[in-house]
Amino acid sequence: MDNKCPKCGEKLSVFYLKPECPKCGCNIMYYNMESRLEEDSKKAEKEWSALEKLVPKFMKKDKKENLSNEKDKD
Predict the structure, then answer these.
(1) 11/15 Cα distance (integer angstroms)
(2) What is the pTM of this model?
């Protein structure tokens, strides 16, 4: 947190724990919640697509190791 009100820019104490800004009354926690959720959604989608590309590489290596272990047992 920037220790500022996102709406009016009022400087807040590090220990200010109330949900509303003392100057403008803006709810600090929920201010611009929709845009923050959209940004988080885009970030999560990007991370998920990177993971989907990475997992098959490990699956191929795992299958090769399993096959070589089965041959060694025989």
Answers:
(1) 12
(2) 0.51
